[in-house]
């Protein structure tokens, strides 16, 4: 049974409280552990292609297989958390996925590696599937944006850590040891989450039945604002992972021909996302989610355009801006889901993340085909199309929010004022 809500915590942890600091630090560590495991393979894709004699498009399966299985497992993991608790599901996920990460570098063939990465994806899904719902339940409503920004910041640093550690290790060892070193680091952060995560004070267990889960999912899909956010997650993540999957191939090849360790340093641009996600979360709480979301998509598109010319400073500046814009948009959109879905938040978060990781798996693979057909120009056109649709969706959400602000709260019909408000 969940613990009773103490009288001095009627509406969740507030900014500045000890509980808020511990919760956000624990989720930061969880984001570090899970995203380092997801994307460490991205840093060694050119080495995998060389060793196993495969194309860049096929090499990206080492990343896509993981994110595809995360997408598949997101809903089941969220359902389990409704019955057994957020902390328990996240803990099992962190421990099992870390153990698998330590074994994956032993894979004898590329096929075995892809299969093992797929299983790891299913195991790691418990952290992203539950973290958003756990945060939305335990944090005061006025602090959700800032708290979500901190969690997203952890995912950006985790993605950086996994990629950067693996990339730098390539200078002195093989891709197998590079992945092993990244997995050891992930295990440390997973342990930190297990130790730091405060118990759920506001969680109420629900019985799990397939028909009930189906009804909850359908109810969320019938809300236009949520549906737009789910689609936005898929498009934005599809574009983001496409750029980072193929960036290494571009920078290793002429006219740049950079060393592998130098290419790995490009992943430090993830720190731009660490900053932008936290800033965007705070701005969204103060100024409204719609304007901040649309601006973030625009910044992402600007960064993408700057990567087009074959001049290294422009390319690097573009990647930096692209990364900052993407994580700002993701922080705002994911926090908005928690505001709209006032009931069955785990299922709403799961649908958002299903779109997010489906975009990573399908979008990233599609970009490999575009790159094979047209090089970096093909990648730009592909990702640019995804961002154009993303901008339309963000504009729709902004207009809907402004209409809701003019019309006042929506009550009895079953939608919260957060759906149409900013």
UniProtKB/TrEMBL annotation:
Family to which the UniProt record says this protein belongs: Belongs to the major facilitator superfamily.
Cited CDD domains: MFS_NepI_like (cd17324)
GO molecular function: transmembrane transporter activity
Stored InterPro entries: MFS, MFS_dom, MFS_trans_sf
GO annotations of cellular component type: plasma membrane
Keyword terms, alphabetized: Cell membrane, Membrane, Transmembrane, Transmembrane helix, Transport
Protein name as annotated: MFS transporter
């Amino acid at each position: 049974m969940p613990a009773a809500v103490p009288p001095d915590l009627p509406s969740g942890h507030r900014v500045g409280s000890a509980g808020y600091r511990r919760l956000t630090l624990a989720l930061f560590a969880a984001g570090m552990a899970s995203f380092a495991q997801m994307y460490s393979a991205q840093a060694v894709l050119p080495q995998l292609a060389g060793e196993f004699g495969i194309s860049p498009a096929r090499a990206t399966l080492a990343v896509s297989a993981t994110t595809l299985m995360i997408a598949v497992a997101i809903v089941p993991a969220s359902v389990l958390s409704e019955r057994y608790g957020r902390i328990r599901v996240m803990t099992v996920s962190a421990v099992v996925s870390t153990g698998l990460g330590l074994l994956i570098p032993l894979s004898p063939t590329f096929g075995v590696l892809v299969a093992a990465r797929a299983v790891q994806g299913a195991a790691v899904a418990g952290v992203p599937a539950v973290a958003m719902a756990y945060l939305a339940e335990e944090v005061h409503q006025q602090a959700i944006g800032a708290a979500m920004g901190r969690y997203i910041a952890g995912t950006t640093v985790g993605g950086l850590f996994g990629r950067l550690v693996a990339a730098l290790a390539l200078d002195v060892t093989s891709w197998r040891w590079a992945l092993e070193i990244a997995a050891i680091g992930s295990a440390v952060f997973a342990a930190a989450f297990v130790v730091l995560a405060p118990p759920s004070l506001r969680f109420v267990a629900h019985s799990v039945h397939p028909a009930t889960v189906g009804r909850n999912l359908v109810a969320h899909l019938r809300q236009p604002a949520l549906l737009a956010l789910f689609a936005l997650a898929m498009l934005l993540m599809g574009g983001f992972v496409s750029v980072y999957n193929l960036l290494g191939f571009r920078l290793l090849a002429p006219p740049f021909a950079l060393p592998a360790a130098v290419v790995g340093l490009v992943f430090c641009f993830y720190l731009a996302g660490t900053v932008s996600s936290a800033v965007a979360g705070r701005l969204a709480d103060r100024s409204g989610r719609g304007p901040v979301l649309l601006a973030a998509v625009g910044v992402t598109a600007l960064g993408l355009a700057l990567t087009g010319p074959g001049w290294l400073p422009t390319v690097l500046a573009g990647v930096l801006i692209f990364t900052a814009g993407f994580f700002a948009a993701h922080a705002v959109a994911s926090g908005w889901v928690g505001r709209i879905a006032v009931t069955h938040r785990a299922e709403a978060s799961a649908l958002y993340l299903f779109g997010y990781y489906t975009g990573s798996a399908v979008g990233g693979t599609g970009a490999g085909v575009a790159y094979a057909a047209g090089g970096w120009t093909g990648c730009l056109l592909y990702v640019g199309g995804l961002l154009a649709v993303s901008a339309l969706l963000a504009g729709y959400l902004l207009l809907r929010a402004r209409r809701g602000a003019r019309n006042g709260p929506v009550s009895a019909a079953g939608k919260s004022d957060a759906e149409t408000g900013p």
